[in-house]
Amino acid sequence: MAHIIVTGNEKGGSGKSTTAMHIATALARMGHKVGALDLDIRQRSFGRYIENRLAFSEREQLDLPTPQYRSLPEVDPASIGPDENINDYRLSEAISGLDAEVDFVVIDCPGSHTRLSQVAHSLADTLITPLNDSFVDFDLLARIEPLTNKVLGPSIYAEMVWQARQLRAQAGLKPIDWIVVRNRLGAQQMHNKRKVGDALDQLSKRIGFRVAPGFNERVVFRELFPRGLTLLDLRDVGVETLNMSNVAARQELRDLLTALRLPGVTVSV
Questions:
Q1: How far apart are CA 182 and CA 119, in angstroms?
Q2: Which end of the chain is more exposed for a tag (fewer CB within 10 A), N or C?
Q3: Could you tell me the CATH number of the domain that includes residue 193?
Q4: Residue range of the domain that includes 148
C-alpha cells in the first residue's frame, strides 16, 4: 500500500502547500511514484501549484518529474447510506485510485477544520504540521501560561490529531508519525525563537510528536509558484549558478526529508 503523507494544521499561511509540493516533487525526482490530493476545495493552492508545473513544462517542452495529481471524484449521493458521509467516500475513492499506482500519496489539508481534513489525518502514516515560529501558531497546539510559558494542555488541533490516532488504533493500523516543522525561522529574534523551541520540546514529550526544522522565509518560494517550480528544478530551467539563499534553501529541504524518515527513501536531492 502507498505510504500516506498528510500536511495539515488548522491555520492558514504556515507553508503547508509549499512544504507538500517540495516533498512530493523531491520524492518524484528520486524516482518514487507519487500521488497528490488537495483537500482545500476552495483555494486549492497545492493543486494549482501542480497545474502550473504541468502547464510550464508543456510550454517550455521540459520533462520535469511531477506528482500525479487527482481531483476528488464526484459520488452519487444515492449510492451511500443515510448515515454515511459523502466526503468520506470521495476521499476513499481518490486514495483507492492511486494506491496501486504510487509509492506515496501526499495530501494537503485546508487551514481549517473540515470533515475531509479530519478523515485525512486518520489515514496519515506520516503527518507533517508546518508551524510559523511564533506563539501565535503555537497556540494551535497547546495552551500556555502567559507569564511562564508553561504548557497547560493541548489545544484544538492537537486534540484532533489525538482523535485520529485513536481511530487508527481501533482499526489496528500503525501509529501516526507526527512531525511538527518549524517554518520561517528568522535570524533575528533569537530570544523568542528559543522560547518557542523550549515550549515545543516540552509539548512534544507530552503529546508525542517530533520537531524538525523547515524553511526560512525566502522570496524564491513566491517566485517559483506561478511556474510550478521547486528549489530542485532551478538548474533544469537554466539557472547555472545558485545564489547563497537558494543553496541554503536546498539544504533545508534535504534536512527536512532526512528528518521525515520515510520508508525506502534515501536523501540525495
A1: 24
A2: N
A3: 3.40.50.300
A4: 3-260
Residue 265 included in any domain: no
Model pLDDT for residues 228-251, shown as the tens digit of each residue: 999 999 989 888 788 888 888 899
Residue 268 included in any domain: no
Q: Is residue 266 part of a domain?
A: no
The CA-atom distances, in angstroms, between 133 and each of 10, 149, 152 are: 15, 15, 19
Give the tens place of pLDDT for each residue, 20-60.
999 999 999 999 999 999 999 888 999 999 999 999 999 99
All cell numbers assigned to 182: 518549524
3-state SS track over the chain: CCEEEEECCCCCCCCHHHHHHHHHHHHHHCCCCEEEEECCCCCCHHHHHHHHHHHHHHHHCCCCCCCEECCCCCCCHHHCCCCCCHHHHHHHHHHHHHHCCCCEEEEECCCCCCHHHHHHHHHCCEEEEEEECCHHHHCCCEEECCCCCCEEEECHHHHHHHHHHHHHHHCCCCCCEEEEEEECCCCCCHHHHHHHHHHHHHHHHHHCCEEEECCCCCHHHHHHHHHCCCHHHCHHHCCCCCCHHHHHHHHHHHHHHHHHCCCCCCCCC
**Global pTM value:** 0.92
pLDDT band at 259; cut points 50, 70, 90 = very high
Question: Domain count of the chain?
Answer: 1
CA-CA distance, 250 to 216, in Å (whole number)? 11
